[in-house]
Write a structure and sequence with these properties.
The chain is α+β, with helices and mostly antiparallel strands and 278 residues long. The chain contains 8 helices and 6 strands, in the order H-E-H-E-E-H-H-H-H-H-H-E-E-E. Helices cover 44% and strands 13% of the residues.
């Protein structure tokens, strides 16, 4: 009796999925692998990927394969897999945020098979990069607080640098990943953890030398993010060969004129522009 009931439920769910897919115009169907373990995973994956009259996802827990049907004029495979990744489930194109994965139920924590730091085999240039409607650009506050932090270090003001870094951390944590472009998402998943750690380190001390040490890696990751984002005005990537004990270090600036955040008034003009980001 129990087996018959299970079969009936499975049949109803399959029929429901087929009916949902049948309602989608300009339908395109693809099969992709999405990592997961159980029935609970199935519910979460399908709920995250489904979009009424736009996209339908039917995931099989035994094969870890999903049949995705979508309106090719309104979305694409990448957008669907991105939503599923944000719900905690890796595919070969997008990795779930570590903290979201960690919060999955124990039975849902599948073995993670990372092929790269953020995406695997699907180049973003081959996909339609739909712009996401958004009232506020997600990255602008992050960049603005970074520049404020840089200016505080130029002035060798540890207290202000700590405050600006705290505001930067808040801006980072407030980024809504479902409202950034796929190109930004690719980089964001790579740099998020490091950005948070560096901003936390800088905000937790007023020692300018310690802040400047963390600012080196913060700037490196911010550069990668800036390159993936659209900028209204040119941004200058600048280099000081003397920083970091002679190893050299870079930073980003809205002004072409060199104002060194690693030495301040001691060597204000030490450095040069190595790249202009437009």
């Amino acid at each position: 009796m129990y087996s018959i009931l299970k079969l009936w439920i499975a049949s109803v769910m399959m029929l429901s999925s087929m009916l949902c897919a049948a309602q989608i115009k300009n339908a395109k169907t693809e099969t992709v692998k999405i990592y997961g373990n159980c029935g609970m995973c199935e519910k979460t994956i399908e709920k995250a990927g489904n979009l009424k009259r736009v996209a339908s996802v039917d995931w099989d827990k035994d094969t870890q394969m999903a049949v995705i049907t979508y309106d090719a004029k309104k979305t694409n495979q990448a957008e669907i897999l991105k939503r599923i990744a944000l719900a905690g489930y890796d595919s070969d194109s997008f990795l779930a945020p570590d903290d979201v994965y960690a919060n999955l139920h124990g039975c849902c924590q599948y073995d993670r098979v990372k092929k790269s730091e953020s995406v695997a085999d699907v180049p973003f240039t081959e996909l339609v990069d739909h712009e996401v409607n958004q009232d506020v650009d997600q990255m602008t506050p992050v960049f603005n607080y970074y520049f404020d932090l840089k200016d505080a270090l130029v002035r060798t003001n540890g207290a202000t640098a700590a405050d600006k870094s705290k505001a930067l951390l808040s801006a980072i944590n407030n980024v809504k990943m479902d409202k950034i472009s796929m190109k930004e998402h690719k980089v964001w998943m790579n740099v998020l953890k490091d950005l948070q750690e560096d901003a936390t380190q800088i905000s937790s001390t007023k020692d300018v030398e310690k802040q400047r040490k963390s600012f080196i890696s913060l700037s490196r990751n911010m550069y990668e993010l800036m390159k993936a984002s659209k900028t209204v005005n040119p941004v200058y990537y600048q280099h000081c060969p003397m920083a970091d004990g002679g190893k050299g270090a870079n930073w980003l600036s809205k002004e072409k004129e060199i104002k060194n955040p690693y030495y301040g008034s001691k060597m204000m003009s030490c450095g040069k522009v190595v790249e202009t980001i437009k």
